[in-house]
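Researcher: Quick sanity check before group meeting.
Model: Go ahead. Protein one:
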Amino acid sequence: MTTAATTDTGPGQGHVPDITAETGADEHEDGRERQGRLATSADLYRRWERQQWSVAEVRPARDMERWNALTPFMRQQMLGALAELEVGEVAVTRTLGTLIDSPPTEDDRIYLCTQLADEARHVRFFQTYLEDACGIDLDAAEGGDLEAAADYAKVFAPELARVTSEVRRSGDTESWYRALVYYHLITEGVLAATALRTTRFLARRLRLAALEEGLTNVTRDESRHVSFGLRAAEDGVARGYGRVVEDAHFEAIGMAAWVLVGPARHNPSPAIPAALAARAAQLRGSVDIGEERLVKQLRLIGLPELADRAQRAWRREIDKALSAYEERWSAPHPIRAAAARAAAR
């Protein structure tokens, strides 16, 4: 039941962009969004009713044969990517409730309840895929080790829990908007959007049909979630909470960059020059997607003057994470190894 993760527009529906659209592919959509066409919470609720899907119908186990035929290196890379997504979904499922408690409007509350159902389904999809297609027992040591190694769990999830807990503790509007940025714009709009785009590409290339179908469904859901975050943040800026939204972005940039680079994960540089160049291009692509998402979101929520500063901060934090990798593993990250090789030619 694959359904393309494309935009879904119509009279009175507002606009929900595909969070994994190629750079430049949705420039006309940016224009519509800036003209106030982002979907409202009521729009998003109606889309949710139309866009249901089932983990059982995706049938993750049908990928088992293809999965077992992958090279050990590729299986390890895919496991790392899937673990990051699974851990992230668990974290957002556990923390969304505080945003549901005190949103700006009742329509926001009703929509956020639908998002909580989505997040639970995403957890079930990734856990089922890891168990049925990849053969990982998540209740055993191997499953625990895989989840524990995820950078999101160590770096970003504790901060997400902290800022969302503050919403419940204080009940004030500033805390709600700060948590919104951490949750919808950084975790989902930058990190999840980047991971989904790169992992869907690999699933298609590796002919993992169930994974591609499931990720397409997840991407469609996440596009609704990020659209909510953009519209809510835009409203917050208009209501005088722009400084809170700004501060939350810059608080979170360093952690997001660290998660994308993953200094704690060993990422060996291939000895064959062509393989090194390809691997570095894939990793560099993820970093660039994250930067593109960050800058685009600031434009869409009414803070375009922060784009250049955010871009500089992102690149600075990526450089720090690459240096941390080199210090941890006594070898350059593939991105730097490929750049050094290219410069030496």
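Researcher: Fine. The other one?
Model: Protein two, sequence then structure:
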Amino acid sequence: MNGFDMSDDSAYKYRAFGLVIDSDIELSELEAVTGQATPDVTIVLAEWLGTLPDPGQPPIFDYCSPRGIEMIWPGVAAFLIADNSRIEVMPYPDIPRHFLAFPILGPVFGWLLECRGLLVLHASGVVVDGACIAFLGDKMAGKSTTAAAFLRRGARLITDDLLAIELPDSGDAIVRPAFAQLKLADDAATEIAVPGSQPLPLVFDGFPKRQHRLTEMEQRATRLDRLFILERGAQLPGIKPMSPAQAMVALMRFSYSVRFASAPADPEKRARHFQACAAIARQGGVAILEVPARLEALDAVVDLVLQDLGRDLPHG
């Protein structure tokens, strides 16, 4: 189909976000799994749509289709989230494989993880000596860049873009590890130079950031210790605590589900989302992190956060 082979058995098996994934599509970004692990999610190539929309149209999201949730990027592929464990993909003819990974591991999985009961925030996260910290902020606020500054000092990436949090009965917020890639603008990558990172080709010409593949990442689900809302442009690094009410507003604002605002209201799902944000806000680990715009100031930002955590990392 459309230049892709279809078979009865998935060709690839991966692990991400605490899930085993069987896939007809190679997703080299993810950790490969060997053996006979039972899949939690299956990604299949399927001709589920009669006619693909003309390329050049804007993205199409249909949340009311009887088939499931439809997400279509004309010229790339049509995706059907048939249920919480199955994604059907219908690519456009001759589309490069790496074009498919971009929506699958972003909006498609963002929706699927929410449907599976996780709170998903638009954030980057690292683990420092067993403590997980995450960075939230507006587009181009420097979430990935700030994370990279910690990686340069020896921290381990746990996620970039999709911060998937589960809240078990213990009450602790637990972050599930994603995959070992980080998006960075070329100037940030040059200035920070994360050890062992491999720059990849741009997803498409003109894209502002390039994926960088890492040789290692945090593989264990880890308790969330701090959430920092980034504010860029300060003269000096600073940390300003947030009240639970302020933290709640920020968590709702930077939830990944905001990009699905046109979806019909699901009272049960929205109540679960609200309760998860409220539980994290009440724990008191949310603060504003003031970050100077100068890339060379990021080491001072790292030092300030480490002091706040009571942790230490060597200077590069």
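Researcher: One line on it for the slide.
Model: The mean pLDDT is 92.
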